[in-house]
């Protein structure tokens, strides 16, 4: 007796090499699938459905070419202004394996920017390999050649597969790594070949590094272990445990390492919104209605769902069907566990197309062999499929959505990309009011984004490498209004080109006035206040709010600069600025004053969404560069030889964010 179950095991006859005829049919089907996906292949920019995710993925390849080919240093094209001082673009994300592989040939050829068509072609290559492995998997599990060919045809034609296996995202290539992992695992368990053990382990590691959500593949893998070796036999074999550990160690190591990066794309819920399920979304009928509509229109169409159900009826007698059913059920469990992510992003549902294609292939063969009625039903299914797929991919669909191949990037963002691409020299960065990644990638320039409204906040983000600011009409209106009353700012800002929605400005970097970046949140309204000429900030009045947890209101007081002025005029004869923030405590403000004879040269405190603590840094000589100290602490310093002459930031009911304005301590002109 053996520990390995033999029921319904594919015979050696079912594993024989397929015929030359099937080779040619497979090649024709794959070429058809690739040909369909070549639609808009050569579009120069990324503007179609889910352009946001595509541009961020493409940015990783750009980062490898621009920064370093070290695969463990992934950088993107955009970065928050508040993270200046950190390595540019470094972001916590799943390891961009495909982006790194795509960068290698370009780097060898001396190309410094990845064309969009090239990155789409990389996705098409992985799609073709996915088709090959799907064919081999169906045959290995006892499927007939016709079923294997029909499964590949289904993968080629399902609308969600058509689109997302040619976009610049990791989701399409992850289908290849997933099925390659399961196929080589199956061969290893049946033939006990070391090469397949290694390949299955490598592909399993890569599919998890590429998308950690592919962890649901553990269930079809367990099915293969149990069906081939038996539960007890699998558990008692040390080499299987070592194989599993070898897969998980690099995945865990990367996750822990990347978790310390300064910015995140939100893999884990503790640094961004959770993608996991809670009772509120699980019990909401709208969630399940939305997912059901996607299943019968975007993912499988009604025709594909019908054929998959027909194929699933053969689960009892066909191992290929049982395996596909286990795979599909595992994916459904993943959806149930991560409803928030799946409801938000339709590409989360892409992995279902592989097991569904196997079931569709079996179902299509059953229906075709059911006589005239079955063939008539097949013809109707094809018509329904064609109409549905056209509307999903090319035509207007339900509600606000357009067809997947239509523009998903607003016209103003496309205009902004053109302004930057036209006016910036190669390698120059810019500061944008928009964080849309397609703006940066399509502009072929990297840069910063600033979420606030304060004009000094934008200027504080510029430097010699990033001297340009990209403003909306509202931003430009605020800037020109501020320039009319500030001659220094007027000399710093030069408008380069104005479009319908955006305008590009250059910030001259040789001005004596320095704007320190704002820290804290971006809520409330923007404010800017500066001391009169010849004065600098010498103290702050602080109203505490929410039981002392945050700064509710802020007021700056100024004093004359220069030794002669400070000796001749008492401190109280300086200027007191307006209150910023609406909350006033009944006990009055805390008065934080610099010692007599000293002026403020910076600000320091704590901020996490709101300003929690703030005080002036007073010293005529201890000027140090601005830097953060800890996760919520900050210390802003004026450059050597400058003092704090103003503050800017955001304030509403409370003080959300603050930054500094610095200038040399010049006495007022006579």
UniProtKB/TrEMBL annotation:
Comp. bias intervals (Low complexity): 564-573
Keyword Transmembrane helix assigned: yes
GO cellular component, one term: plasma membrane
Location(s) in or outside the cell: Cell membrane
Keyword Zinc: no
Its membrane topology: Multi-pass membrane protein
Signal peptide: none
Name under which the protein is recorded: Phospholipid carrier-dependent glycosyltransferase
Organism: Persicimonas caeni
